What does this fold into?
Amino acid sequence: MKKDRDNFSSNLGAIMAAVGSAVGLGNIWRFSYITGINGGGAFLLTYLICVVLIGVSVMIAELSIGRKTKLSPVSAFLSVAPKTPWWITGLLATLAPFLILLYYPVVSGWAIGYIKLSIFNWSEIKSDSAQVFTDFTAGTSSIVFSIIALLLTTGVLLFGVSKGIERISKVLLPLLGVALIILVIRALTLPNAFDGLKFLFYPDFSKITMTSFLDALGHSFYSLSLGMGIIITYASYMKKEDNLIKTSLSIISLDTIIAVLAGMAIFPAVFSFGLEPTQGAGLAFITLPSAFAMMPLGQLFSIIFFFLLFIAALTSMISIMQVPVAFLEDQFKLKKKTSLISVGIVSVILGLPAALSFSSLADFKIFGLTYFDFLDRVANNFILPITALLTILFIIFKFGINESIKEFLIGSNKEKSILTSMYKVAIVSIAPIAIILIMLHSIGLF
Ligand code: PHE
It folds into this structure.
């Protein structure tokens, strides 16, 4: 099983693939809408606190587990702690991306659909973007686009780790950076752009609640692709010479910078035209197109934006799908093609209700949430923090904090770094305690 494991061809390739996974719909679509509903600057601040104090530790933990064992999550936990229930952590870590895979292609499909709508149906978007969104998500074309998004992902994965994932990330990420910077410049040169910046950066502390903290925590894991086996899986393809300090710093800083830049492209546009930032999941698809419709050259910027969103989505979807696929390959010794096709078919079938959550199934509620929102909340606000917490406990009680630091530093030629000093403290204190408190609050315990 191990002998045919593909490796990344270079550290840069590995970094690009991991950044490609981290930077996705989460940075643009999800970050902006969740910041919008949670009051702007206050949420950004809470989010940054979660990234630095908790995300960094979980990142180091996952990187060291993955590279040390060279296995996908379930097998990795099993190999370090055989005959103990720790493997359940790996299973949860595999379940989260699987749940996300059921709705992620839906939003990715919207991005493709909106490239087409921006080109051919611009006048309709101009007159009523909310109606366009309702009609589009209720129609069959949105389902077709989601399937196209899944097929493209499957195609890349068929080429394997170094040829597929690595090559496509190396091309698409710089493109994404350029497109984003163009959009930020456009947004910042609009009248009253400052109101949007103020919303994004000026923290109104009264807006910080336990619920917004949970949202920030869940989103920090989601955005960094943590708590879901992705970083473990990617690290399992990394070599001993690869510098994990550089890798983790690149993932964390690029992911955060891109989210903030996306906010700087979206909120000034929204505020400049007097629109509300609290639309929720429709912010990028209803509110933002309305803003584009009112600006000079808006159609062009709309096309650029949805193209950007799609690129970001594709490189992440590759990593999401990789987890259940590697699980079937490693655990059940299935061939890659068979695993890919099985995961693809199951996700189309179980994902269909997510696509319909905005139309025919809008009134079908699970715990008061549509199927789409249910998948999103269960995965992000529950499974990810729980998996992250279990991973932390696993490091403390089984893998060993020093062992993980040792593994983390191999390849960097350093004895210690600021990151590992922070890690030593945070992994036994702030990270687990904060996760437990926030989770307890979310189930109403205090
Ligand atoms: N981190 C990705 C994003 O921000 C989402 C993601 C989720 C990636 C799950 C992998 C797994 O969009």
